[in-house]
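#dry-run=false #mode=assembly
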Amino acid sequence: MLDNILESLAFILGTTLMYSAPLIYTALGGVISENSGVVNIGLEGMMTIGAFFGATVGYYSGNPWLGFLVGGLAGGALALLHAIASVTFAADQVVSGIAINFLGPGLALFLSRMFFDGATMTRPIDLEDKIPRSLDKILTKGTFIEKVFNQYDTVYLAFILVAIIWFILYKTKLGLRIRAVGEHPKAADTLGINVYNIRYLCVFLSGVFAGFGGAAMSLAVVSNFRPTLISGQGFIALAAMIFGKWKPQGAMLACLLFGAAQGLVVFLGGTEFQVPSEILAMIPYVLTLIILMGFVGRATPPAADGVPYEKDSN
Amino acid sequence: MKTKLKLKEKLFSGNLGFTLFSIVIGFVVGAIVLLIAGFNPLEAYSVMISGVFSRPKYISWTIIYATPIIITGLSVAFAFRTGLFNIGAEGQYIIGSLVATAIGYFLKLPPVIHFIFVFITAALAAGLWGAIAGYLKAKFGVHEVIATIMLNWIALYLNNYFVMLEGFKRPQSETSYEIQNTASITILENWKYSDVGREWLSNYPILKDILAAPVNLGFLIAILLAILVWYILNKTTLGYELRAVGFNRHAAEYGGINVEKSMVISMFIAGALAGIAGALQVTGVTKSVAILAAMEGYGFDGIAVSLIGSNTAFGSIFSGLLFGMLKYGGPKIQPFLRAPSEVVNIVIGTIVFFVAIPKFIRMLGSLMNKKRGEKNVG
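#status=ok
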């Protein structure tokens, strides 16, 4: 009995980690962009293009890490468009993000048809060419720890990245500058910080991270790209970022919650459990709404989030 | 010094000019992408155009494709004008189509009355769904973008839950039962397949071709809704108040407008509109709802429709029709040229992208004027 429970728990925790990782990358992208004052609703599109490039480069090169990197760069390239619009041309950032969400999936599927004989699905990567599981040889098979923590390397990387972004944002000069630009760009400008450069950097990085998130999906969770692979995960990551109050550690916790819901649905799908999976799948979203209603305090975005900065304006 | 604006300058300074310019750039970028991929863009665009206009049936289909996104566009536009961003049209559409199917299938009512009942219940249900986001914003300060994203997913899973229920799910399928004929708004639905209808129509090939698509009253209702939205926003006290809240929440409050109530009402109306889009799609075209593996995109397309239509009621009709053409005509380049139909999304994305940056277009305009000025001096 106890063994069964532990077994189930290990399965749920393991799947939670696996499903959370892509969300964590993407949510971190949101954190970095919005802390510099640029709303990034285009995470979904950046994640999709990252997933496509990750899977495609992974398939042709046989090197998952090269795929992962190119996935990130593809997301970053798309993010540059968002930066040009929202930083240089003071665009409505939400509108520009919506454009990205049409461009990302559009380009991904267009290219997929070009590279894979008209198919919107990329050809699957061989199992040994997926992202490796480095701890596979170290952990003893069959133990609780092994079942939970024997994950694809992209999962560990996601959590390491959370720590890195936290450190950069709160412990370095660059982080202070990013937050200053997001809170009060005019003051930051007066102090000699180049608002535009900081914002370009942050938006680019947010695309890179979202691209990583997509690639972590197509190179680890599954082994190819298909049209419904991302469908909405970028938006969930966006919600997780707000849920986590624009902080890397908070976003991570929120992503774990969404991942856990998915893990639970997968787990219960394999059991005789009576609660319909649709109702379970709904829970994290309902929970998010309830929590946002103020039971854990208000979520306040950076003061200048979404406000274009124009040097000569007052 | 005031000089008369030339037509060109007027176009560059006005909303319409920006939009038309963006649409042109959208198609140019689409052409460049096709060219790089090794296709002839002129050929691709002419396939699209003939795929939309060359047969009456195609025109019918284009309008059918445009109808739901015109209305979700109205929903988004209405919210935008009152200072709210309704990303939730997607979920409100789902709720509307679900309720429309349930009422359309389970209730037995006389024709016309049945449809009216379906229409009203779907609008109410989706309106309340939208109002949740308005209420959360008004009472708890929850940003409507995140609230509606959450509500979209909840709606999707609710839909899947109800479609799976015994008594509603059609056995051996992933869809619900179909609505009763009494709730249908498809024109001459039974007659056109009856012996009499077939015989009569064979004498009128054009009419026959038009009716080969599920032509329905949806488009007419969409136009009426656009007029209604325009009227509410511009000609009523309610519209004035809602827009005032959108312009400046604090000023509106100071002026004696109940801001919290306005937000709820605004989201209710936006939700009802998106729900009507779903109800019309069910009663006019699909007749049932299916299990959704992912979002269908009617709400997200509505956002783009609204933006390209400058967030106005009548703008939404035109940009919705443009969308309908792209969405119906676009995929035809796939079988004819083996060119990826997703170029359509690239065109749409580019249009929205340039709509977002009027500053760029203004700069371009002034640059051109400057050059001409220099030439004149020289």
